[in-house]
Amino acid sequence: MSAPRPSSAAGRWVREHLVLVLGLLVLAYTFVPIAIVVLMSFNAPASRNVYAFDAFTLDNWANPCADPSMCDALARSVQIGLLSTLVATVLGTLAAFALVRHDFAGRSASNLLVFLPMAAPEIVLGSSLLALFVATGFSGQLGFWTIFVAHVMFCLSFVVVAVRARLAGMDDHLEQAAMDLYATPAQTFWRVTFPLVFPGILGAALLSFSLSFDDFIITNLNAGTTTTFPMYVWGVAQRGVPMQVNVIGTVMFLVSVAIVVVGEVGNRRRLAART
């Protein structure tokens, strides 16, 4: 019996591990830019006009606010992100409960309209909001609060969709069982419904903050003279990006990883406690 040829063995290995190889390539494609950002956060460039690693330094981390305007823009983005996330999460959660749990005139149309801000291009949303602010007399007052209103508007749809999906996947018998055990509607909501829906609400809130913090197009059209962190990066890119921008990017990435890790550890502990 002849031994299998190396070419056939290699081909069989590729067929058996094709999905794994493609997955690793996708992960590499995703994380290589992040790795470059982390690397450049330790860079001491010879010139701001050349975005290339020149020498290792910790000065960027020791002095993240070497340019005070960058930290001002960062703080403003965080403030807008937190406020818009809070308002969008509350309103979106209430809207999701109404769409899932109640039958009312216009429910089907409301379900359709929720998706429009998600499907429309950002340039359309941004220009529409700008036209709205101009028509209502706010053309000379564009700034923090107009950005806030715009961010609540486009974050709201994502919250409604995320929370509604969580509610649709819930088992109604759990709430009925609580009622059968003489729980009041308030007790049923806070002890049964809310804990089950909370992961969806938390995920929607995190997504809203990411979208708000990262937004450029809608913000740029409705910001007036106010500068957020993405607008700052776009402005300084024309004359050389300071390496401290990579420090902020690295910190945001580490915070995101920490949130995911903490959530996964919490889920595994809850599963272990049930078993």
Automatic annotation (TrEMBL):
Pfam families tied to this protein: BPD_transp_1 (PF00528)
Keyword line: Cell membrane, Membrane, Transmembrane, Transmembrane helix, Transport
Residues in ABC transmembrane type-1 domain copies: 74-263
The keyword Membrane is annotated on this UniProt entry: yes
Membrane topology: Multi-pass membrane protein
Subcellular location: Cell membrane
The keyword Transferase belongs to this UniProt entry's keyword annotation: no
PROSITE patterns: ABC_TM1
Transmembrane spans: 20-42, 78-100, 112-136, 142-167, 188-211, 247-266
InterPro entries assigned: Bact_Polyamine_Transport, MetI-like, MetI-like_sf
Family: Belongs to the binding-protein-dependent transport system permease family. CysTW subfamily.
Protein's UniProt name: ABC transporter permease
Lineage: Bacteria, Bacillati, Actinomycetota, Actinomycetes, Propionibacteriales
